[in-house]
Amino acid sequence: MSKMKRFAEASAKHQTPTTLEEVDQQIYGAMRAPDAGRQVARPILIQTIYPDPIQPRRAIPSAVRDAWDGDPATVATDLFDVWLEKIAEERGSPFELAAYLSEGETPRSQSDEAESDDADSVKRGALEAALLPVVELAASIRRTGLTNPITVVKFSEDENGTKLYRLETGERRWLAYHLLLRHFGKDDLNAKGEKQWWDRIPAREVEGFNVWRQASENNARQNLNAIAKARQLALLIMDLYQAQGIAFQPFDVFAHEQDYYKQVVDANAYKIPRGMGEKIISTMGAEHRNIIMRYRSLLELPPSVWTIADDYHLPEGKLRDLKGLPEEKAFALIRSWIGEEQQLSPSGDTSPERPLDNAPVSAAWSIMERSMSMLHKLKPDKLKAMGQEDRQAVQEMIATYRRLLDEIDDWLK
Questions:
Q1: pLDDT tens digits along 297-337
Q2: Percentage, residues of the chain above pLDDT 70
Q3: Residue 353 contacts by C-beta under 8 Å, 6 or more apart in sequence?
């Protein structure tokens, strides 16, 4: 059985809240008393812990993840080999990993401090920016230890009877231990001179996977980017419907990971159950109900745009402008935002292609033409009868047009 198949089967068995009271207990009660009902943290071999393929936050960039076989036994070697090689290509020089892990800074960062007037001259690419938090976390763990154990769910056993686990929370912490194992070996002396085994990580084993607990953890830490929030929203909606006996296709049957979450893109077929909207908003750390509409609509982005928007952490406000555009135009516009020296293509490679100097202008006009007819149909009586959510959508549309017109005016000057 493939690793992805095991992930998918484990995902289908996770526990789901069936009532408002259960949701309250799982979101609020469990979070306020994180040790309630859990085992005490114990060291677990990192090679027996698999990352969760449907986790909304992607600590590993798509270009690295696609080149890795998914086996936790090869994280310290193959995965980081690929990651470091791609960073070297991206920045044009090797990444000083040893300096970061041993000293907490690189010769390059020291040079930046010495030349503070030119501190902004060092621009980090997406691959390096994704690795730095993992490296810095690894250095911190080696200095002061791990203060917050990861949580895992047992999903299988291998042929020798060894338990296999799936990560519920803590992917970066898990990656940091793999990085320390790669650099310092199985056993090491930490900054306090104490023996430390980097091949096992403190973990709490929980009885069942819980997307609500995972969402609370995600939002209690570093904020999710727009694509990750779209994934998170989809998982919460799917979880509510699974509690009602609705089945969804498993993750491993889809060619692109986005299609798994896209199963709930239809707001008419998968309406938010009465009373659950506020729970979703609170769990995702949002303030307004319109986030449900906004982030669900991102599920319709072209796959190549979805992937690069995730890797570069593009904000939802910008991605909103791409909805409904042909993939080539959307990708051209997203490329102009990123400002890559190497032009990107929708297939994900970096080979040069024909210039598209007028792409931002043509894309902007396409956005306006798509819904100008809708604005013409909005008569005063219809506006007065609109609900708050529809009013907010129209206001956002007006704000988008104003911004696009300003940009077009700038391009004409």
A1: 999 999 989 998 999 888 898 898 888 888 888 888 888 88
A2: 67
A3: 343, 345
pLDDT tops 70 at residue 6: no
- pLDDT digits over 353-409, tens only? 333 334 344 444 444 444 454 455 566 766 677 676 666 666 666 665 665 666 565
Which residue shows structure tokens 């709490």?
204
Q: Give the CA-trace dihedral at 157, 161, 162, 163, to 10 degrees.
A: 40
Query: Is the CA virtual torsion 314, 316, 320, 323 positive or negative?
Result: positive
Structure tokens at 137: 């976390």
Rounded distance, CA 386 to CA 203, Å?
50
Summarize pLDDT for 222-276 with one digit per residue, the tens: 678 999 999 999 999 999 999 999 999 999 999 999 999 999 999 999 999 888 9
What HEC string does the chain produce? CCHHHHHHHHHHCCCCCCCHHHHHHHHHHHHHCCCCCCCCCEEEEHHHEECCCCCCCCCCCHHHHCCCCCCHHHHHHHHHHHHHHHHHHHHCCCCCHHHHHHHCCCHHHHHHHHCHHHHHHCCCCHHHHHHHHHHHHHHHHHHHCCCCCEEEEEEEECCCCCEEEEEEECHHHHHHHHHHHHHHCCEEECCCCCEEECCEEEEEECCCCCHHHHHHHHHHCCCCCHHHHHHHHHHHHHHHHHCCCCCCCCHHHCCCHHHHHHHHCCCCCCCCCCCCHHHHHHHCCCCCCHHHHHHHHHHHCCHHHHHHHHHCCCCHHHHHHHCCCCHHHHHHHHHHHHCCCCCCCCCCCCCCCCCCCCHHHHHHHHHHHHHHHHHHCCCHHHHHHCCHHHHHHHHHHHHHHHHHHHHHHHHHC
Residues written for the chain: 413
237, 272 Cβ separation under 8 angstroms: yes
Count CB atoms within 10 A of the CB of residue 268.
5
Give the model confidence (pLDDT) of 77-131 as tens digits: 999 999 999 999 998 999 988 888 876 554 444 444 444 444 343 567 889 999 9
